[in-house]
Amino acid sequence: MSGWRADEAVAALQQAGFSHVVWIPDSFFGQWDAALQRCALSLIRVTREGEAIALAAGLMLGGARPLVILQSTGFFEAGDALRNVVYDLQLPLKLLIGLRSYRAWRAGASQDSAARFAEPLVQAWQIPYQLLDPASVNLTAFATALAALASANHAAALLIVE
Amino acid sequence: MIKQRDLLQILAQQRQEQIVITTMGSVGYWPEFSDSDKDFHYLPSSMGQAVPLGLGLCLAQPGVEVIVLMGDGSLLMNLGCLVTVAQFSVPLRIILVDNQLYEVTGGQAVAHAGRTNYALIAQGAGIPRVYTCTTLEQWQQLSVEALQGPGPVFIWCLVEGERGRTTPAPPRSMTEQIHRLQKSLGIST
């Protein structure tokens, strides 16, 4: 369960200073779709998560401030694009990653391997991150974390427990 | 079929203020014809990601024209990018340099080499202007039209496969390329 209303969560993205959202929705972030379409952020729909990261790289090269929203499974898929953008191009990629099944897995109620590998893989790529659970923190904490994410001059991620 | 080097030479003659993104094989030839701040040799790269990178540049800088040169092996890794591109009316021109093989790994064939109709794929994705080019004479005539007017544009060029080429080295480091490109766009870093 999330106490974050979609329009308020999307407003927080905007207030953090992002210019574009590049995404493939999952069942949690997908609830923000209508609010994202209504807001002033440019919403870019892509077909794969690696593509999202490369597109964000082009946006950054062009002076924009994109946020890539994806699920942990997409993060797995996007490894090579992430490696290239963060370490070859050295661009300050910003990611909002949904951790599928993570809450249930931590409670021993899910065998979803996506939950098991998500956080270790973010660590393996040496991406600084913060982890938030919408069930236990309010929207203000999310907005604060987003502001920190947006202002970092290096690649960083915010992991959202699902 | 066209020789890749000849294709690029004609492109350089037709090119105006567009950003040109090269990948793999074209990185080796393009510096013979151009040394512009708006040349971006996407190497080291993530294979298949040059088109979304070019699209991102178009979306960040409305009005800036971008040409992406990519091989068939690269496009096959990311066919979905054509659908993504088709969503936007942007001056992005994708030149598919189709040599039907993985050049720098020793010339192995790509999947279904020579039997895939990339023009139909691009059309099916919804890209409004699609061209096919099999001879140098065709390219000379067609490039004038294809490099002008609204985008996105997809140009499928069948070129001779070249074996024995190795991964080329871009003439500048990635850091220097990014600095030059952003400076040319008026972006302070």
Walkthrough of the structure:
Chain A is 46% helix and 19% strand. With 162 residues, chain A is α/β, with parallel strands linked by helices. Chain A has one domain (6-161): 3-Layer(aba) Sandwich (Rossmann fold), CATH 3.40.50.970. In chain A, helix 1 (6-15) runs parallel beside helix 8 (139-151). The longest helix of chain A is centred in the middle third of the chain and has 13 residues, at 49-61. Chain B has helices at residues 4-14, 24-29, 50-60, 72-76, 80-86, 118-125, 136-146, 174-184, and strands spanning 19-22, 39-41, 66-71, 92-98, 101-102, 108-109, 129-133, 153-158. In chain B, the strands form 2 sheets. In chain B, strands 2-1-3-4-8-7 form a 6-stranded parallel β-sheet, sandwiched between helices. The longest helix of chain B has 11 residues, at 4-14. Chain A binds chain B through residues 20, 42, 44-48, 50-64, 66, 80-81, 83-85, 88-90, and chain B through 40, 44-50, 52-61, 64, 78, 80-81, 83-84, 87, 174-175, 178, 181-182, 185, 187.
CATH superfamily of chain A: Thiamin diphosphate (ThDP)-binding fold, Pyr/PP domains
Mean pLDDT of chain A: 97
Rg on CA atoms of chain A, Å: 14 Å
Amount of beta strand of chain B = 15-25%
Shape field of chain A = globular
The first-level CATH class of chain A is given as Alpha Beta
Sequence stretches where pLDDT stays below 50 over 5 or more residues of chain A: none
> What proportion strand of chain A?
15-25%
The main sheet of chain A orders its strands as 2-1-3-4-6-5
N-to-C SSE string of chain B, H for helix and E for strand:
HEHEHEHHEEEHEHEH
* Total discrete domains of chain A: 1
- What is the CATH class designation of chain B? Alpha Beta
Helix content of chain B: 25-40%
Care to count the β-strands of chain B?
Answer: 8
Outline the biggest β-sheet of chain B. 6 strands, parallel
Comma- or semicolon-separated keywords:
heterodimer, A: 162 residues, alpha/beta, Rossmann fold, 6-stranded parallel beta sheet, 8 helices, 6 strands, 19% strand, B: 189 residues
